[in-house]
Design goal:
This protein is an alpha+beta fold. It has helices at 33-50, 66-83, 134-138, 146-155, 168-177, 209-216, and strands spanning 4-8, 11-19, 21-22, 29-30, 53-62, 90-94, 104-113, 122-128, 160-164, 183-185, 199-205, 220-222, 224-226. The protein is globular and about 55 Å long.
């Protein structure tokens, strides 16, 4: 969780940013601003859950101009509705003095921690496929679902989540375990960027692995960690 900060009193701050992705002519990846905000918020939300926290407030940092603000808010709202969550208060600011030639924005979420679940007698799995750039748009059915993750957390099928970012599965496992020489066995490419956390690592109680397979289907895969 590279972007999670414990600010005390049970509050966690997570954030994710996006540059050169949006509706401007010189953007590297051209997608609607609403989609850009959805995925930035998705990363920040997953890192809240990885910290055993639930969102209470959202900030949007908009460098793309006033015209993008409404679409950014809509994208964040889409995510929370999809995940089955109430949308926390959304605030933030827009850069209006300077017009940039590429889109740029960030989403910051403030959350409140709850009690962490025990990870005893559990096994690790990957859920989703590492995707980046246009792959995220073209292979959306392979992206880990925030709704299913939240459902699994509530029912106790998942004890811990750990989102995978641009550094790939292997590096995230090393951060997770604190073991710089850790190795992994997985059917996925452990070095490939997962972009906006299209893959997450899940700790699943061994007694509920079959339930997890039924819920997450073909995109749930065994992850063996060798330390």
């Amino acid at each position: 969780m590279r972007n999670a900060i414990d600010i005390g009193n049970g509050f966690i701050v997570t954030t994710d940013n996006s540059g050169g992705i949006g509706e401007k002519l010189q953007d590297i990846v051209n997608v609607p601003d609403r989609i850009t905000a959805y995925f930035a918020a998705r990363v920040a939300l997953l890192e809240q859950w990885a910290s055993h926290a639930e969102p209470v407030s959202i900030l949007i940092h908009n460098f793309s101009g006033n015209a993008s603000w409404g679409n950014y808010v809509a994208g964040v709202t889409d995510l929370f509705h999809e995940a089955g969550l109430e949308v926390p208060p959304i605030n933030g600011s827009s850069e209006t003095n300077m017009e940039l030639v590429q889109s740029a924005m960030a989403v910051t979420i403030i959350g409140k921690k709850s009690a962490a679940r025990t990870q005893e007698n559990s096994a690790w799995f990957t859920y989703g496929t590492p995707l980046v750039g246009d792959e995220v748009r073209n292979r959306a059915d392979e992206i880990a679902s925030a709704r299913l993750i939240h459902e699994a957390m509530k029912s106790g099928i998942v004890q811990q989540i750990w989102p995978v970012g641009s550094s790939g599965i292997l590096q995230e496992v090393r951060l997770l375990t604190g073991m710089k020489e850790a190795r992994v066995e997985t059917i996925l490419d452990p070095m490939k960027s997962a972009g906006p956390s299209t893959v997450v690592l899940l700790a699943i109680p061994k007694m509920q692995i079959e339930e997890a397979k039924a819920l997450f289907a073909v995109h749930l895969n065994k992850l063996t960690i060798n330390t």
